[in-house]
């Protein structure tokens, strides 16, 4: 780490804080993540030396995961468990939409990608998959796909979803229509320190075992267990969740750079188009699922949205739109896609080769 790195991180955080305060003043949705994301992505694209510290992002996910876990009371778990069929449909929908758009990306960009037809298929399908960006990039690299293009496609999708979905829900006027209250509702700082220590241990164990997104899922699971057991050490103070949103927004914004924008503009444009199509298709599916399940359509939009778990959980928490339901849908979908997308790809390749050999 160079001597200038801490300075750049500090200046980036100050810029992000300014962006957050402006968004608070403008009353934008999720201002503490939206503002930092907008200003740091713009500064990064303009070539400014923005920097994000991975430990800060981990801490942000830790805090958000812990805060979300406090919502999983016994009554909420009973509600979510009754929605298993809706979660299963959402997983099937995500796999189908992601695979279809992935095939479209592969077929429309095959000549540009280079490599073998199998590599082109892998690049398209792992780019279209509605899963975690880092996990899909690693899986793509393992099967010989263009990992740089996969990472770029997921970065574009995450930016589009994070910016568009909260604004659309805010403009539609939905807020607090499905407000689920956390178990503990009073901040007790000694209890908060104990809560953070225990959930931090969960994150560390998840990381040691190589689990996906350990700094969110570890604290989430531990906080869920404590809440279900009736242990209420402390609620999460608002200022702490605001700080967590800020560093998560920064970590998203610094992904973009002048080189990123100049690299494969056609691919970025096609990825953006497929991302918009994914958002619209998932929103339409969410409305139908809301009608079938009896839950408000806005909660289903966040639950089926092709964004990151932490980002959608933050949106649900700030807009009070069924945090546990949204989180449950998002986690189950991400895990299922992570487990199934590579076997589906390999099965498709085997069938394609079998057909060609006949």
Short note summarizing the structure:
With 358 residues, the protein is mostly helical. Helices cover 78% and strands 0% of the residues.
Features:
358 residues; mainly alpha; Na+/H+ antiporter like fold; globular
Uncertain spans: none
Beta-strand share of residues:
under 5%
Gyration radius, to the nearest Å?
Answer: 20 Å
**Number of DSSP-assigned strands:** 0
CATH uppermost class? Mainly Alpha
User: Any idea what the shape is?
Assistant: globular
The number of domains is 1
Q: Structural class of the secondary elements?
A: mainly alpha
End-to-end distance, in Å? 57 Å
CATH fold node name? Na+/H+ antiporter like fold
Helical segment count: 16
Q: What is the oligomeric state here?
A: single chain
Q: For the residues shown, what is the average pLDDT?
A: 83
> What is the N-to-C order of secondary-structure elements (H for helix, E for strand)?
HHHHHHHHHHHHHHHH
Q: Helix fraction?
A: over 70%
Major sheet description = none
CATH architecture: Up-down Bundle
